Amino acid sequence: MRFWKNLITPVLTGLLFLPAMAQNEGGGVLPQDNKPFVVVIDPGHGGVDPGAKGSYSTEAQVALGIGLKLGRLLSEIPNVKVYYTRTTDALPGGGTNIKSALRWRADFANRMGGNIFISIHCNSTSPIPHREFIGYHTEYIRVHHRRVKRRVPRYRHYTTPNIQEGTEVYVWGVSKDDDKNLALRENAPLLNDPEYKSLFDSSSAVLNTIFWNTVQREYTKQSITLASDVENQFAKIGRVDRQVKQRQVGIWVLHATAMPSILIETGFINNPTEETYLNNNQEQIATCIYDAFVNYLAGVKGETTTQVLAGSANPPVIQPVNDNYSYKIQLLVSANKYPVNDPKFSKLEGKVVREKDRVNDSTQYRYLLGNFKTGEDASQRLEMIKLMGYKDAFVVTFRNGKRIDQ
Ligand SMILES: [Zn+2]
Question: CA dihedral defined by 188, 193, 197, 202, rounded to 10 degrees?
């Protein structure tokens, strides 16, 4: 009986993790087949888990406020779809277990086919412990049946507030050597850091570490790109830049999401000045993250930010700046040599030019109209030209004065 028990337990444990392993797809860096770009916003903590506490607000409340405002801004971008891990003050997934909720957040992001995962938190610091010498007191101890007098130093123990300020953004990294150019400071987790404790999930992390290392390794670069720009945007408005930090262990929501993922510490809620800022300037904080996201999306799509915000599905190919392009409309090709001021051209606005061409020992003349700066201008004009009877007319392109199509 004991034998079977020992055998069955690991098998059952393995089965329990199967659903989690199956939800590993995520959406990758960019959506496929013109699907919307999926952003998963994860306001940290919630419900029974208030996170760090300020004097009048909690991390869970601030993270939710910023997360919802960020989501509203991002939803305005064409072809962007926003999902939230929570929209109320409750743990995601409907449970009361903080570790299960962590797994639920990552699984949810993967199930929704997320292309980016943004987790929002607030920082906090433990008070600084101090020991002050306040004098000696005398005590007696026994040594070999003799009573011995001893002076013992006395100390007063007390703490002072640890006031820190600024923002930092975490990404998950496989190792410092992943990409030598990244030059990120590896941040060893502080075991007494309450944030670290709440974000670390030893059970599933141990089981799935190798698997998720492989998954998340693909996205480290994109995660750092977005994380760095979030810090840039915060710095622009005068926040203290505590930089992007890479963690190799501990942050499950970053580790187990199959997409670029960042965790933003928006400020120190136990610093009274920052607590006020975090409660009163959530729109500004959300706008910084939004600006960084727009830059990021433009980068991965190979578009300008204007194109991202206009939602152009097929961005025009950007021509090299050192080449000079121009466009003409070819009206007709004929063996007849018409003067360019022939009455048949007079109703067309614009200058007509005639080019001589030899094809198979016979001479032909091409008649071209206008000189347009953009292909779009030429195409618009072409529609009018066709309506005027030049049914076979088409646009021809010149690069540095030389025709490049026939
Ligand atoms: Zn937190």
Answer: 20
CA of 52 to the centre of ligand 1 (A): 7
pLDDT tier at 38, thresholds 50, 70, 90: very high
Rounded distance from Cα 121 to ligand 1 centre (Å): 4
Structure-model confidence comparison of residues 388 and 123, the more confident one: 123
Rg of the chain over Cα atoms, rounded to whole angstroms, equals: 33
Mean pLDDT, residues 44-56 taken together: 93
Fold category of 325-403 in CATH: Alpha-Beta Plaits (3.30.70)
Alpha helices in 23-159 (DSSP H): 59-75, 98-111
Spans of all domains in the chain: 24-126+162-310, 128-158, 325-403
Q: What residues are paired with 319 via a beta bridge?
A: none
Span 24-126+162-310: which CATH code?
3.40.630.40
Q: What is the mean pLDDT of residues 45-52?
A: 92
Instruction: Report how far ligand 1's centroid is from the alpha carbon of 223 (Å).
Output: 19
Instruction: Evaluate whether ipTM surpasses 0.95.
Output: yes
Give the chain's length. Answer: 406
Cβ(172)–Cβ(246) under 8 Å? yes
Between the CA of 186 and the centroid of ligand 1 the distance, in Å, is 19
CA of 128 to the centre of ligand 1 (A): 20
Q: Torsions phi, psi of 12, nearest 5?
A: -65, -40
Cα(74)–Cα(55) distance, integer angstroms: 31
